[in-house]
Task: structure prediction
Amino acid sequence: MTTDTAGNKNIEKTTSVLKAAWIIAVVTIISKLIGFIRDIVIANYYGATLVSDAYYYAYQIPSLSLILLGGVGGPFHSATVAVFSKLIPNLREKPAEDVNKLYSTFMTATTIFFLILSVIMFVFPRQIMGLIISNGSADMISLAAEHLKIMTPLLIIGGIVGIYYGILIIYKQFMLPNLSPIIMSAAIIGVVMAVPDDSKGYALAWATTIGAILQLVIQYPNVRKLGFKWRPDFHFTNNPNFKEITELLFPAVLSSTVGQIHIYVDMFFTSSISEGAWTAIGYANRVFQFPVGILVTAFLVPLFPIFSRLVAEKDLEGIKTYFNKGVGVLFFAAIPIIIGILTVGTDAVRLVFERGAFDENATFMVTEALWFLSVSILPYVFRDSITRVYYSFNDSKTPFVVAFSSIVLKYLLNVIFIKHMGMGIGGITLSTSLVTLFNACVLGALIYKKVRMDYKSLFTNLLKMCIAGIITIAVCFGTAVCFDKFIELPKMLFEITKITSVGIICVVIYTGLNLLFKMEYAEELSSRLINKIKHSSP
Result:
């Protein structure tokens, strides 16, 4: 292959990734906005109370399947992409018979596994919730157990939907997997608003189950149309491709489960803080995931199949190039998000949630959790990116071992921050941020066994971005203080004006400083905007 041809291919891949990232970002923004409306409705009707705590405690187990294991970027989606993308050379043709057979085997094994877990969850809900929230009241445990029984079907649905996501993304159908969470949000909004106030106790659990079923239903026709037909197949042994899936999937599932153990550790400590504390942490995570989830999903979903193909082609230089480009863009976009959370985070939480049963105290709890969580954004995007590189090498064992080793660290940090320093909610999210940093550093170091990444240029650019960020946050903080002292407007208008003004100032100063430092990401963004303006002008 000539240098020109290789260069053209790289340009085509980069353009394809950017187009896909743009589509995914737009769709994810829509999905997140609907999710925010869902959270506003829940906050309005439930606030941060016993009922909402019970639902969110119970939801942690089924969400392990539906979001962590089966969601976009989860183990089932990742295993599907890593293995099937290498077995499907031509996306314009129907899958070969052996590919379809592997699909059926994978679907059969997934259904059996999660069916067993669902039966256990349905039969022993009180024992499970009693173990997780042992410091909670008897009413809390009983209410959470009923929520858990109602949401039992989510376990089976999660694994199947994860495989569907993987298949659709291999075929570059990025929109549907990222749109389908809207179905869940819409179901919750509809049910919660429709059910009378005296019957809202279990409405959230029923709405969540209905939404999950609809997610499954909406994915199926497209997967079927691509030529994938599920016929029960029990060819689990002497099957090299299925063995490859399980070797990748099993440690990845354990790794995600370890992440859930971190959450259970947090739940144990949070149940002793105050009523509504766990709900507040949940809302803080939702605010955090709105911008960060969009960034990570938009860039890593289209990049992951490219990583897998580059590994198959043994193109290690290509992996380093695409990794640095992807993570560099994520770093560049993450710093203004951190600035926004630290300067106008309280205003954003107040604007979005503070109404009905969600009072000023709830706003403070959510904001406190969010401040300490914001510092994890940079290691978060790095950890998720480097994990995809491991998966591309069919190595999910290393991320699992690293995640497992951090359980003790998570527990010790919670003991220090909660029991000894009395930090409360902020201590929970600060320990989460430090564990994320630990995982990112260890994974980043161990990847050298497979490929010697070019971290020098990546982190040199990050240092320049951080300098620009420090200057920008000083200006934004001063602007926010001036708003509080000198601007008098009706509450909602004030919050909107303040957030918008600080946001615009943040983007302008941060981008301008990065242009001054000759950062390629800022230069590319600037040139794209100029070109769009030129093309749109007559």
Notes: Residues 455-538 form one domain. The CA atoms of residues 102 and 239 lie 9 Å apart. The chain has a mean pLDDT of 81. The chain has two domains: 10-453, 455-538.
